[in-house]
Design brief:
The complex is a heterodimer of chains A (about 550) and B (about 350).
Chain A: H1 2-31, E1 32-33, E2 36-37, H2 40-47, H3 49-82, H4 88-97, H5 103-114, H6 120-129, H7 141-166, H8 169-177, H9 182-211, H10 214-220, H11 228-238, H12 241-270, H13 293-319, H14 338-343, H15 345-378, H16 386-396, H17 399-409, H18 422-445, H19 450-458, H20 463-491, H21 495-500, H22 508-517, H23 521-545
Antiparallel strand pairs in A: 1-2
Chain B: E1 4-13, E2 16-26, E3 31-35, H1 42-50, E4 57-62, E5 65-69, E6 74-75, E7 83-86, H2 98-108, H3 113-126, H4 142-154, E8 160-164, H5 172-189, E9 192-197, H6 200-206, E10 209-214, E11 217-222, H7 224-229, H8 234-239, E12 244-251, E13 254-257, E14 263-265, E15 273-279, E16 284-287, E17 293-302, E18 306-313, E19 316-323, E20 335-340, E21 344-347
Parallel strand pairs in B: 3-9, 3-10, 7-8, 8-9
Antiparallel strand pairs in B: 1-2, 1-4, 4-5, 5-6, 10-11, 12-13, 12-15, 13-14, 15-21, 16-20, 17-18, 17-20, 18-19
Classes of the chains: A mainly alpha (about 550), B alpha+beta (about 350).
Chain lengths: ~550, ~350
Amino acid sequence: MDSKFIVIALSVLVLLYFIVFPMLVLIYDSFVTNGAIDFSNYRQVYSKDVNWRALTNTVRVSLLVMVISVIITFPLAWLIGRTDLPFRKKFRTILVASYMIPPYVGAIAWTQLLNPSVGYLNNLFKAMFGLTAAPFDIYTLGGMTWVLTLFYSPFAFITISRAMEKMDPTLEEAARIAGASPLRTLWDVTLPLMAPSILAGGLLVFIGAGSAFGIPAIVGMPGNIEVLTTRIVTFVYMGDEKGIRDATALAVSLMVIANGLLFFMSWVLGRKDYTTISGKSTRPNMVELGKWKGLATAIVGGYSFIAVILPLGSIILTSFMVSMSKGLELTNFGIDAWIPVITSEQYLESIWRSLGYAFITACIGTLLSLFVAYLSVKTNVTGRKLPDLLVMLGGSTPSIVIALALIITFSGNYGLNIYSTMWILIVSYLVKYMTMSVRTIAASLSQVHISLEEAALNSGASWLRCCKDIIMPLIAPSIVAGWFLIFMPSFYELTMSNLLYGADTKTIGVLLYELQTYADTQNASVLSVIILVIVLVGNLLLSKASKGNVAI
Amino acid sequence: MSQVKLEHIYKRFGAVTAVGDFNMTVADGEFVSILGPSGCGKTTTLRMVAGFERATEGVISIGEKVVSDSTKNIFVPPEKRDIGMVFQSYAVWPHMTVAENVAYPLKIKNVPKDERNKRVSEVLAMVHLDEYGERYPSQLSGGQQQRVALARALVARPSLLLLDEPLSNLDAKLRESMRFEISTLQKKLGITVIYVTHDQAEAMTMSDRIVVMNGGIVQQIDKPYNVYTKPVNKMVADFIGLVNFLPAEAKGDQIFLKGTKHGFDNVAHIPDGEATLAVRPENIKMSKTEGKITGIMKHRFYLGDSVDYRVQVEEHIVRVIIKGIQYGTWSDGETVHLDFDKVMMFGNEKNNYIIT
């Protein structure tokens, strides 16, 4: 029993030190001006037009992305989950897959497709309709909204289709037998019952879009469109104390918006009225689309093409072009752009470095997740849910906020100085991504009945021995899944790495971002393809390890 | 008119035949139960009548109207079949009040509001929920939610009511009283009912006729009394009530219990060879002195209103149930004499149960 207590106490202390303490420092710093605690820092920051505009842009764009995402994904989720749409399993895979494409890779793809000078689609439209000017400009508020929608709507799609799968289908059947047509059933029963999940999915999109850095940086900044995250980065890059202090005010604003909404969301979902949706898995009745089948297939197919296949195609195509100045001719294709990248020591080093950091992060994170999940699910110690809550707090905080908090806390002011080392990167990844593996492992642990453990203790095994012999083998698949759930996003992380990297710790995400900002489109594409391939392989391993139950 | 007719109904899921050659006519106002173990195809059959599943082959008609015909490509969707249905999970909509739930079928039919309200309170009174109209389902017990579902199924006065294991989520006492209530309502309204259940007591108490299904195939369609006393095969005998199966041998006009010289008249005309004798535990008389079959008392289980005995006859354990309190009359290891009454006989293998 003693070993149990020590392990638990240690993990709580570690979590408090690395998650809660930096955030408290950040909040404290944002309110302190010349030793006095007041709002003057905020007043001063938001009196500048550019900062105020960044705040309103963030809220406006995120709202727009949220609304559009819900309008698009609800019908998609319904068509794919509840009708006899052809190829619906394939569509589902494609739409969920867009979730595993790093958003900044998507942003790079769309700048290739829709930039006003040489965008592939713009050129195509010009040729098709005889236009003299490009019809679209990606470097606008609209362009940014478009790309954010495509890459953050999967949050809504996944949330909504999961809820749709869990809904008792007889609730809909009861409406049909009462005389309601399929559409009327959708309107009277499905939609109202799904409302909380739709709201939850929408809020996730809002928070995701509001906290996004890659897409606004690549699509917005060239057109001088700033949001909170890009402003924070600009301030931090100034490097002086004033810049950091301005950044803290913006970061705390973003944190209040994001974490406040998440709190609201869990409150909505936790309300008793909505718990009547049962987990019964009766075979859902499939609505027959009949004469609408062709149209529905075309719409879903068209969306899947635009959202996933088009941007991926653009990246791959660009990486294999010999010269960007020539067009899409057969003679213009080759591996010329690949050779300098895969022979460059700088590039290879970054790839190996990112893999290494992600590996270390995943190992530490999985171990910590195990203790946190065990404590939360399997014990009845007072405060057993606290570490779980702390980890969730970390995961729900915008990346940029975490990075800033770590900078001001762990650069020597409070004892520990890991600034510019790989450890600050690893800590940031842990804070942000551990929550996914905790969820996965906790879900699996809760399936292992307490009596299995008691039987081992009864047979004379110590608690640690029981963990090794009984619990570990039973939850092994979820541990592997949890490991990958930390490994993958850590590998291609950009937002935090971009603020925290040092001269010797440049990661692949940062390198790619630099290439894109230096307008080295081809090398950026090659690197993007390499990232995509690694992510794809990782996902295949993940779905194999979890027998198809978990995937990014 | 609300007779329901199923003719040569097949339902296949890929290579699996869930229902094979189902034939039945449910008369107007009749209460028919479809009874069988889980996975026997009973729910699939009901869902084909409701229109949630399409029959792979065959014709289904409700009243005069053909609602499903595989050859003519006729298929009437559920909302146009004019059926009431109660689901196992109640399927009461949590976002509507009790009154809104019950009023919904009338709302769809554009029944004017006054008329609607009147009929809703009528039907709520019928299921004893007059006071609960304004409540939400989450404020009701399981039994009350079940009544809401029943009221909603009846409010539009359908010609046919389908019930899919409606009582299986209720506790034992409530189940018994709901049985009685459903039965009374059905008689009062004269509505045709098809009732799916795996609970033989429900089927026996409420039905005019019982359809026993197994492995997608109808085994027997008959009145509850006949299904119990004259089961067509071992499966039916085993599924309804308790039964002792004892290996036997047919020889001419006699069937002998294996290992004994005691014969029964071969009224079932089982051909010579392996056979099975079946006798229900309550149809066995037990005596200390007389009886044609001799056995040894092995165990006794006191049940309050009866005693459940295990008697060894040759190599077989025979279960005997005797009403009343004779527990102390017997002791373990004692020699007892048995007489079998209402013996059922089955030829082996072939007649175990009907398969196609």
